[in-house]
Amino acid sequence: MKNLLTVVMLFVFSTALYAQKDVTKFLGIPVDGTKTAMIQKLKDKGFTPVTWDKNILEGEFNGFDVNVHIVTNNNKVWRIMLIDKNARDETGIKIRFNKLCRQFENNKKYEPMTDKEQTIPDDEDLSYEMAIHNKRYDAGFYQISPLDTIAIYNESKQSLLDKYTQEQLDNPTEEISAAIQLNYLNNKLDIELQNIFAMTNNYVWFMIGEYAGEYHIVMFYDNEYNHADGEDL
């Protein structure tokens, strides 16, 4: 019971700490802060305002031309939305959608939001399903921070400098090695718990948008920490 309580307390501490400093990132930029600051950061990445609206940016992302929209809640950014500038036919959008799914699946920064297959079957009549059955085609992935086990180990070792000298840590006895390993396991567990908590708040998803028989990919980088949760009601 005591060990269970310790794990629970560690989880509570970890999640509170994580919520303060780690959010969804777009091109390495935290989806957070003011719209003005976000626009400047995106400009620094090479995006430029469109001619008809200075708050909408355009540029290249993942090999495709996109328009970038910034969504806020209480003056804090909670969503980055990207829309393909160039439309595709039904075959083209299936290929684009399925390729995106595979790219996310192969990226260690992401975990699928479901165990079900998210790609579109080749024989799917997409236009019929969307028009007649109002079917929505989307896929989602949790954004997590991959574990850098080497960095965790080195930090775990350095945190023992209050007990041991640097020389002792670099040439550890069995006792010191055990202390380093224990620190490492605790820190690794801490980060893993943080990642579990972040998965419910940091995610990226995309869907197929249709207009006049043409299709676009619409992608969302969401920071749920800043999303409206009824606080203004």
The SSE order reads HEEHEEEEHEHEHHHEE
Percent strand equals: 25-35%
Mean pLDDT: 84
Helix content: 25-40%
Coarse shape: elongated
- Helix-strand category: alpha+beta
* Tally of separate helices: 7
Weakly predicted, low-confidence segments: 1-20
Task: Please supply descriptive tags for the structure shown above.
single chain; 233 residues; alpha+beta; two-stranded antiparallel sheet; 7 helices; 10 strands; 27% strand; elongated
Helices and strands in order:
Layout: H1 2-21, E1 25-26, E2 29-30, H2 35-44, E3 48-50, E4 53-61, E5 64-73, E6 76-84, H3 90-105, E7 110-112, H4 126-132, E8 138-143, H5 149-158, H6 166-170, H7 174-198, E9 202-211, E10 214-223
Antiparallel strand pairs: 1-2, 3-4, 4-5, 5-6, 6-10, 7-8, 8-9, 9-10
Describe this structure in words.
It is a single chain. This protein has 233 residues and is α+β, with helices and mostly antiparallel strands. It has an eight-stranded antiparallel sheet, covered by helices on one side. Strands 1-2 form a two-stranded antiparallel sheet. A hairpin with a 2-residue loop joins strand 3 and strand 4.
In short:
By secondary structure, this protein is α+β, with helices and mostly antiparallel strands.
